[in-house]
Write a sequence for this structure.
């Protein structure tokens, strides 16, 4: 137990000192394993972990989904998604902000990345909202919050990493994330309506679109809808695995990009960015696996389970403590680092207490999502600051508060009513 606590402290300290997460987790995990078992077992462990991770069939889904998201983003589909939502609801007060939320949800469905969603949709929607007189606090906060849907609405890279790290069925995780993702879109839209109700001048209405404009907008997004249905429908229908779905989705996105006549230079840039992102993610997975091996060997989670049972603590109380830890860590750590640092300890405890691993995965992703917009170090807040450098960070933080409240309510709903997340997995996979 003592070794585990020291390991967590060292890992957290290194991450806080801006040591790359993969290196921090790998060094602490390898060093701890060496101290307990000796040099030769430690070297063997890290060699086997590296080989198994890089040669794993299951992990092949990571570069495939990364490539699919980059191809869709590079093909400029974000503008068309935003336009489609805008022509239907933009004429209402606050409609452009709600259109941004909806288009973020649609883009997330084929992108799977929060940062990519925030950056791409921010460049499209913020100039439009500003041109109609939307307040900077509402427009920037809307994009920051909408971007978080990228890691919840399937397919999601972070869900894939959770599934691999915990050996949880990725298809079930994708199915479980769909309803909470839709609730997230509704909750953020209600947050926009609340802001508009308090300050109508913050979101003036745009002009009403014609029927012809609406039909044209729908025609332009059929490829995204088709790709989304192909990838998720195939997984839910049992036609192919998540890895196969990643391959089909990447191939479909490439075909879509070629239809758009993307320049070869742009395609090569997309492939290079996808390779770099994949390398970073694999390094994170290897580092997290090494750290997990160390924590598991200490038996810390078993000791905690015995302590919980001996003290008579209820599973609900333990879960509330875990949720609080995630909320606090979300204020100082990035999403992936927070998840990879805590899963080796929390996941065995949660499963040992009888909680569903799929439900816990969705809860973790939502808490990580909350961390992306939680001051002072919410990643998406700084992303928006870089997109609109003339807007003070304090303005973005002030605007994000209603969306943070919406996320807290959603976490409570999924936490106390697990059936919301588990309904679709039970329908399609059981």
């Amino acid at each position: 137990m003592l070794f585990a606590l020291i390991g967590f402290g060292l890992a957290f300290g290194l991450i806080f000192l801006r040591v790359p997460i993969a290196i921090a987790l790998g060094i602490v995990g390898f060093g701890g394993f060496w101290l307990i078992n000796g040099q030769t077992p430690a070297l063997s462990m890290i060699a086997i972990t590296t080989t198994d991770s890089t040669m794993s069939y299951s992990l092949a889904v990571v570069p495939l989904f990364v490539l699919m998201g980059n191809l869709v983003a590079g093909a400029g589909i974000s503008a068309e998604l935003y336009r489609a939502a805008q022509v239907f609801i933009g004429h209402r007060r606050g409609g452009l902000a709600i259109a941004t939320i909806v288009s973020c949800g649609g883009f997330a469905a084929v992108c799977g990345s929060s940062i990519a969603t925030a950056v791409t949709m921010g460049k499209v929607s913020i100039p439009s909202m500003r041109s109609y007189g939307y307040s900077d606090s509402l427009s920037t906060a809307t994009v920051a919050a909408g971007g978080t849907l990228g890691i919840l609405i399937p397919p999601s890279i972070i869900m894939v990493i959770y599934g691999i790290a915990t050996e949880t069925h990725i298809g079930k995780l994708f199915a479980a994330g769909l309803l909470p993702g839709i609730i997230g879109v509704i909750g953020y839209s209600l947050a926009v309506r609340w802001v508009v109700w308090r300050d109508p001048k913050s979101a003036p209405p745009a002009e009403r679109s014609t029927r012809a404009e609406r039909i044209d907008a729908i025609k332009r997004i059929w490829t995204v809808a088709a790709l989304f249905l192909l990838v998720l429908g195939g997984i839910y229908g049992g036609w192919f695995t998540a890895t196969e779905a990643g391959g089909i989705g990447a191939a479909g996105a490439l075909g879509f990009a070629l239809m758009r006549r993307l320049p070869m230079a742009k395609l090569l840039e997309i492939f290079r960015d996808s390779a770099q992102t994949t390398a970073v993610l694999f390094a994170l997975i290897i580092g997290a696996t090494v750290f997990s091996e160390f924590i598991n060997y200490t038996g810390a989670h078993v000791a905690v389970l015995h302590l919980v049972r001996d003290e008579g603590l209820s599973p609900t109380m333990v879960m509330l403590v875990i949720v609080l830890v995630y909320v606090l860590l979300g204020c100082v750590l990035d999403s992936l680092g927070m998840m990879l640092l805590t899963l080796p300890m929390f996941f065995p405890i949660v499963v040992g207490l009888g909680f569903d691993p799929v439900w816990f995965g969705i809860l973790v992703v939502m808490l990580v999502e909350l961390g992306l917009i939680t001051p002072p170090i919410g990643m998406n807040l700084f992303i928006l600051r870089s997109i609109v450098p003339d807007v003070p960070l304090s303005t973005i933080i002030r605007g994000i508060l209603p969306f943070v409240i919406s996320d807290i309510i959603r976490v409570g709903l999924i936490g106390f009513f697990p059936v919301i997340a588990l309904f679709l997995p039970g329908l399609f996979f059981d």
Summary: The chain has a mean pLDDT of 82.
